[in-house]
Specification:
heterodimer; A: 416 residues; alpha+beta; 2 domains; 10-stranded mixed beta sheet; 13 helices; 54% helix; B: 233 residues; alpha/beta; Rossmann fold; 5-stranded antiparallel beta sheet; 5-stranded parallel beta sheet; 10 strands; 34% helix; 24% strand
Chain lengths: 416, 233
């Protein structure tokens, strides 16, 4: 009955209580949303590369190497020479090696030169392989395989021609060597979706008439001539390496890092990811702190609402007292009320989150390539929700104690 | 002196509000016999509210004794006094008696929530509540209505039903009719009296309205029993 009366009392103040609950709900939705984006981003980063033991590139920072080789974020400061690549490929620890050559673009998408092995060696989301939704992998020199987002955004079909631009965000086009879409990959939720894949030789081919980053004037080699040429790359941007035995990873890593001919860097993707988390950890913490502060603000708003309701509710408290309710009951009722508001707010916030996720999921995926899974709340989220209710109870203790003292002093008579 | 103990007895009571309120009350001797109906007449400021608070045990006297049915409030803890009040005293205010957001039924049953013994005396609370409001001249299907939707006269009757349920030995009413018009006043008092007589309940009503006197066994002037002390500021 007390619970029913407490609910009735809340219902009687629908507007103010509703606003308070809404504020809590929005703050909780924000908090959980930030959490979702954070874990979603982390998971999607961690899912991007799998099954690769080492990433090798020119010496720079390990995070930088990881970012440009796998995530196509930022640029390589240097390439590694083809000789170094082959030296590594010939080492006996190496099971397989896939070259990656970056630097050109098509519209807003990056072009990546690689070998056919890429399609069988590149794994994402704990060991999943790339699959074609249409067409075939690279057969001709001027064939390209495009990611799902590239196809969707630019509306490409198998057989469509593609002109690759030199460099990134550039107006200089490799118009002489048009490519053709030979295959479109299934969506992976990784940067591969936004990549135009060509063969390593093709990267060389389009630069036949180029020197030091500029087109040689007057020189205009046709595609058929290029096909006859021996296209040997001078350098690659990075390489993905798989070892025969996992025990050899560290030995190979040390050997590459101490490679005498050229300063190289080999990284373990997992370790580099951890480093990356450490870097973004501060921003992450700040984000969580800000959204937690929003929740606290909403709860303080609730405290203010309860405080301001006390005066008009002295009559209500006097009735309870006259009926034999101890001041402690009044205290308990106000705390119960706060707990109810916080709980309803938290649940409503959770509901809001799911509605928002349901609406935003495809948008966020297409805009940022970030897949936010819609799944039942994690244990962490359940704890966060419980935390909101507990915090609501703690915050309401102040007005509840004031009510306690008021009802102790007033008794059944309200002296105004 | 009769053999049965008085339902209410105040002896040599002095009380002073704590803090800066310059107001004190002294009651040398005042008693109520079981099933007696007494009208306590007094103007506002005559200490009526303080006296009622003392009788209900929400405040305790600094000296002397206030006892209900032989139990001295001073012998009880604060929680004990609250429980004792719930068990033994039905309270009717001047107005705004009910929790407006609660149903009529919840309002009537509220004191039972804090008084297990009184609750035990009621076999079927819902049926009893219905019977009570019927006997107070209200339709029994009113129990599901929200108390806030009732007229003032209806609310006072519901408050009476709430004071009567579980048959507490004493009902304390603080000007319960002052918010009602003359006709409603008379009906309300008739119903309250017939019900309290039917349950052998003692009734102490405080009012400034001497015209009500004819209904009661006894009329006491506040100024005859209580001495007001006002400190000169």
């Amino acid at each position: 009955m007390i619970l029913r009366l407490a609910l009735g009392s809340l219902k009687a103040r629908t507007l103010t209580v509703g606003m308070t609950v809404l504020a809590i709900a929005l703050s909780v939705a924000l908090f959980l949303g930030v959490e979702k984006v954070r874990t979603g981003a982390k998971a999607s980063f961690a899912d991007t590369i799998s099954g690769t033991d080492l990433i090798v590139g020119a010496r720079s920072g390990s995070v930088q190497l990881l970012l440009y080789s796998v995530f196509r974020i930022g640029n390589a400061t240097n390439n590694m020479t083809w000789e170094s690549y082959q030296d590594i490929a010939e080492r006996r620890e190496v099971d397989w090696i896939v070259p990656i050559s970056l630097g050109d673009s098509h519209r807003q998408f990056r072009v990546m030169g690689t070998s056919a092995a890429f399609f069988e060696r590149y794994k994402y989301r704990s060991g999943q392989s790339l699959a074609l939704q249409d067409g075939a992998v690279l057969a001709d020199l001027f064939d390209t395989v495009i990611g799902a987002d590239v196809a969707a955004t630019l509306g490409y079909q198998v057989g469509d021609p593609i002109v690759v631009s030199h460099g990134l965000a550039s107006f200089v086009e490799h118009a002489n060597q048009p490519f053709q879409v030979s295959g479109i990959l299934e969506k992976t939720g990784t940067p591969v979706d936004r990549t135009v894949i060509v063969s390593l030789e093709a990267i060389e081919a389009i630069h036949v008439d180029w020197q030091s980053g500029a087109q040689i004037p007057g020189q205009n080699t046709t595609a058929d001539v290029i096909r006859q040429m021996e296209l040997r790359p001078e350098a690659v941007t990075a390489a993905l390496v798989g070892v025969k035995s996992r025990l050899q990873v560290f030995g190979l890593q040390r050997a590459i890092n101490e490679y005498g001919q050229e300063p190289l860097l080999a990284i373990l993707p997992g370790v580099a990811l951890q480093e990356l988390w450490q870097i973004v950890g501060i921003a992450e913490t700040a984000l969580i702190a800000v959204s937690a502060m929003v929740v606290v603000t909403a709860l303080i708003g609730m405290m203010a609402t309860i405080f301001s309701s006390l005066n008009e509710r002295r009559r209500e408290m006097a009735i309870f007292r006259a009926m034999g309710a101890r001041p402690r009951v009044i205290l308990g009722m106000l705390i119960l009320e706060a707990a109810l508001m916080a709980a309803i707010g938290a649940l409503l916030g959770l509901a809001l989150l799911y509605v928002a996720l349901w609406i935003a999921q495809p948008l966020v995926d297409s805009a940022f390539g970030l897949w936010l899974p819609i799944e039942p709340p994690s244990l962490r989220e359940v704890w966060a929700l419980l935390g909101v209710v507990v915090a609501g109870v703690i915050v309401s203790a102040a007005p509840a104690f004031r009510a306690y003292r008021l009802s102790l002093a007033d008794g059944m008579m309200v002296r105004n | 002196m009769s053999d049965t103990p008085p339902i209410l007895a105040l002896r040599d009571v002095t009380y002073r509000w704590p803090g800066a309120v310059p107001f004190g009350l002294g009651v040398a001797n005042f008693a109520l016999q079981p099933a007696e109906t007494v009208l306590l007449l007094g103007e506002s400021g005559s200490g009526k509210s303080t006296l009622l608070s003392l009788i209900c045990g929400t405040v305790t006297a600094q000296a002397g004794s206030v006892s209900v049915q032989g139990t001295d409030f001073a012998s009880l803890s604060a929680a004990g006094r609250d429980r004792f009040r719930a068990e033994h005293i039905g309270v009717i205010f001047q107005q705004f008696n009910l929790l407006p957001f609660g149903s009529v039924l919840d309002n009537i049953l509220l004191p039972l929530r804090f008084a297990p013994d009184r609750r035990a005396r009621v076999d079927d609370p819902n049926a009893t509540a219905k019977r009570l409001i019927e006997s107070l001249g209200l339709p029994s299907n009113l129990t599901t209505a929200r108390a806030g939707t009732l007229s003032v006269g209806q609310q006072q009757r519901v408050a009476a039903a709430r004071a009567l349920i579980g048959q507490p030995p004493l009902i304390v009413a603080d000007e319960p009719t002052s918010a009602l018009d003359a006709a409603t006043q008379a009906t309300f008092l008739d119903l309250l009296f017939s019900q309290s007589r039917a349950h052998d309940t003692a009734l102490l009503m405080v009012s400034h309205d001497a015209r009500l006197a004819s209904h009661f066994d006894r009329v006491v002037e506040m100024s005859d029993i209580a001495k007001i002390e006002r400190a000169v500021a």
